[in-house]
Amino acid sequence: MNKAIIFNIQKFSIHDGPGIRTTVFFKGCPLKCKWCHNPESQNFKKEMLYDKEKCVLCGKCKEICPTQAIKIENDILTTVIEKCTFCNKCVIYCIPGAREIAGNEYTVQDVLKEVMKDKIFYEQSNGGVTLSGGEPLAQIDFTEELLKKLKNENIHTAVDTSGAVNFDVLERAAKYTDLFLYDIKLMNDEKHRKYIGISNKNIIDNLNKLSKIHNNINLRLPIIEGINADKEHIFKIIKLIKGLNIKKINLLPYHDIAKHKYQKLGIFYDEDKMSKPTNEIMNSYKEIFDKCGYEVKIGG
């Protein structure tokens, strides 16, 4: 039985494809984007988020933990993650709500049962189900089975992907995917390695190959001042997609609303190097794509 770690099933999504949708967020990603707005999606395993601002150091979590994974020393609470079984008791008994588990194990049938609750909204709005993450294609056996079952129910399917997988994985998903939301972060390979952790070669190659077998690909371009907010990047994107089967583009301005998640995970967030581009810059990029004949939207 196929199982996957899912960290959120978000109802009434309107930015992850057409109509009203349910977005299923898979845990685990081959990329490590410095600006990732879902840092809890990067690790393939369950994680414990701890909000020290909410914590009152009452010690209830330490007392209730069956594996003694929680310690309080010198007014500092720590969790020995190797001992944690993610039994959820500390979360349940934390009155201030300072603890949260990121990720739960689901079967395909579990997810299908949940997303089908809103089928009437998909039908009325021409919506459907979007698989996101993390990287949903990193768990392709589960994803393929789920996509197939959704198509059997006549549900519109979308896959939000980084493209950082073997192409045969994209081929398997393409058979049951109505829309690909394909992310391109950086065209400069050196910068891609620096800010994302891997080369962009496979991602770019896969976009070219996918365009030849699928006729509905939307490009999603995060724009981060200090990283890729320059016209050279935009013109390289245009050169890349010229002649490819891409008609719609989403320009996604950087935001830092997930900064608190990094704190809860104990991850350093280097915000000094990143900022939101101005509206003037975003509109100028939109105008460039408009003139090239693409349907462009700023935002999701």
Q: Based on Cα principal axes, name the global outline.
A: globular
> Which percent bin holds the helix content?
25-40%
The description of the largest β-sheet is: 9 strands, mixed
Radius of gyration: 20 Å
Summed over residues and divided by their number, the pLDDT gives a mean of 95
CATH topology of the largest domain: TIM Barrel
Question: Class of the largest domain, according to the CATH hierarchy?
Answer: Alpha Beta
- Helix-strand topology string: EEEHEEHEEHHEHEHEHHEHEHHE
Strand order of the largest sheet: 7-1-2-8-9-10-11-12-13
Class from secondary-structure proportions: alpha/beta
Explain this structure to me?
The chain is α/β, with parallel strands linked by helices. It folds into two domains: 3-44 and 104-298, TIM Barrel, CATH 3.20.20; 47-102, 2-Layer Sandwich (Alpha-Beta Plaits), CATH 3.30.70. Helices cover 33% and strands 24% of the residues. It has eleven helices and 13 strands. The chain has helices spanning 60-64, 89-93, 108-115, 119-125, 140-152, 167-174, 189-196, 201-213, 231-241, 259-265, 279-291; strands at residues 3-13, 21-26, 47-50, 70-73, 76-79, 99-102, 104-107, 128-132, 156-161, 179-183, 217-223, 246-253, 295-298. The strands form three sheets. Strands 7-1-2-8-9-10-11-12-13 form a nine-stranded mixed beta sheet. Strands 3-6 form a two-stranded antiparallel sheet. Strands 4-5 form a two-stranded antiparallel sheet. Helix 6 runs parallel beside helix 8. The chain is globular and about 60 Å long. The mean pLDDT is 95.
